[in-house]
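Internal tracking record. Fields below are filled automatically when a chain is submitted to the structure queue. Please do not edit lines marked as system-generated. If the sequence contains nonstandard residues, flag them in the REMARKS field before resubmitting.
Queue: standard
Priority: normal
Entity type: single polypeptide chain
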Amino acid sequence: MQESDIPSNDNNSNNEAPSISDNNQITVADEWSNENPALKSFPFEVNSGMRVNIPDADDPLFFISLLLTDDLIKEVVKCTNAYAERVINSSRPLRKRSVLNEWRDVSEEELKKFLGLVLHMGLVSLPSYREYWSKSRLYHNDLFPSVIPRERFQAIMRFLNFGEKSQHENDRLAKIRLLSNHLNETMKEIYAPP
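SYSTEM-GENERATED OUTPUT FOLLOWS
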């Protein structure tokens, strides 16, 4: 582009600033207007707030179960066990001391305990997850080893799975699409935003 292609301010009687269009041609910008544009109205036809009855008692399990439903837990258990079987079968023959030899299918109850510990880790922050099972005086915590042994926690963490990869190559959430869809649908069912 040459300087002669750019209009000078002298030729522009309205003192409008030049702008570049999509095809790299310089054009004069539209004039500013003091008119207020008409805004589209979106009527709210639903009462905002919780759509489920909340018990009077403070029961954390009630609120967790609103999002992590039994159906979701069953599906995650199914996906996790299927993924573990696929990985173990593709790794055969296994070494005698392989941790994969010790794998047993995770149950719904065990997955709930696992998720409870993961949520609790968000409240009690330690340098690494191994420290939650540490016997040192600095980090010792009776809760974690009493719920799940560390090796079992590691095994569940290793095989935790939320479903098969999507058939859409560009789906960046493919590995958690089951969880994402479930949470989106569940939030619509239990809460209406203001």
